[in-house]
Amino acid sequence: MCGRYAQTRADDALERDLLVDRILGEPRAPSWNVAPTQDVPVVLERQEDDGVQRQLRSVRWGLVPSWAKDTSIGSRMINARSETVLEKPAFRKAAARRRALVPMDGYYEWQKHEHGPKTPFFLHADAPLAAAGLYELWRDHTKADDDPARWLWSVTIITRPATDALGHIHDRCPVLLPADRWDDWLSPAITAADEVGALLAHVPEPHLIPREVGRAVGNVANDGPGLIEPVE
Q1: Is 195 considered catalytic here?
Q2: Which H/E stretch holds residue 54?
Q3: Structural domains of the chain, with CATH
Q4: Distance of CA 78 to the CA centre of its chain
Q5: Does 168 score more than 80 pLDDT?
Q6: Separation CA 20–CA 29 (nearest Å)
Q7: Which is nearest to 220 in space by CA: 68, 57, 58, 36?
Q8: Comparing C-alpha atoms, which of 84, 82, 104, 86 is closest to residue 94?
Q9: Is 213 helix (H, G, I), strand (E, B) or coil?
Q10: C or N terminus of the chain, fewer CB within 10 Å?
């Protein structure tokens, strides 16, 4: 799974790196310990009056389906398995029409041991990463029709089996999209399940670098660049 990650690029860097047309919302602070239910930056494409627009906006991590009674379900929807994302009722409509990129510097996984506590690792590459995500809009019917907060935007990160050399750390990893796959993944024109399935099936294996880090990352209250520093 992907349950914690780092995202420290400023909005202008994300705008440049991910070819964003428009930034929406307030400037986002960097975080070395992004956790579920927090607001996170995502990149998505929407059909606007002047055509398709690539947007950077903040959404809540933990997808809330449009049919949910309340938002509590989101804490259990932080990840979606690539093997079943086109079948699960919570994800299949978003997989067809509401796909996103989740920018990150790298993500954390905890390696299990037969005895003793788990060991945290920061998995990263030589360049920033972009994970495949799905976003959804949930209508809060307790709020007035003219209340801008009546819509909750949320996101889930798609995961896949970790079949490369890092599989010994954790058996799953985010679906990390290289830059030449971004356009198709975000395209509102691709909606057929078989096409989306093909996009996921042909994503190349990521080449990530594992770095053992300190246990402070396990506390969501901790933040700062020291969290990704290697342990001595």
Answers
A1: no
A2: strand 51-61
A3: 4-227 (3.90.1680.10)
A4: 8
A5: no
A6: 18
A7: 36
A8: 86
A9: strand
A10: C
pLDDT confidence bin for 166, thresholds 50/70/90: low
Indicate which residue of 2, 45, 136, 173 is catalytic: 2
User: How many other β-carbons are positioned within 10 Å of the β-carbon of residue 91?
Assistant: 22
Per the CB < 8 A criterion, the answer to whether 214 and 120 are in contact is yes
Q: What value does the mean pLDDT of the chain take?
A: 93
Residue found under tokens 């699960």: 88
- End-to-end CA gap in the chain: 26
Positive/negative CA dihedral, 77, 83, 89, 93: positive
192, 166 in Cβ contact below 8 A?
Answer: no
Task: Please name the residue that has the structure tokens 């770095």.
Answer: 211
Q: How far apart are CA 175 and CA 181, in angstroms?
A: 11
Which of 45, 109, 136, 173 is the catalytic position?
A: 109
Integer Cα distance of 131 and 118 in angstroms? 24
Read off the amino acid at residue 148: P
The answer to whether the beta carbons of residues 31 and 6 sit under 8 Å apart is: yes
- Give dist(CA 81, CA 163) in Å, integer: 14
Q: Which residue has the tokens 């490369």?
A: 164
Query: Taking Cα atoms as reference points, which of 29, 223, 9 lies closest to residue 130?
Result: 9
What are φ and ψ of residue 184, in 5° steps? -65, -40
Residue type at 208 in one-letter notation: L
Q: What is the pLDDT of residues 88-111, one digit of tens each?
A: 999 999 999 999 999 999 999 998
- What the block records as the tokens of 78 is 């932080």
Residue 165 pLDDT: 59
pLDDT of residue 141: 85
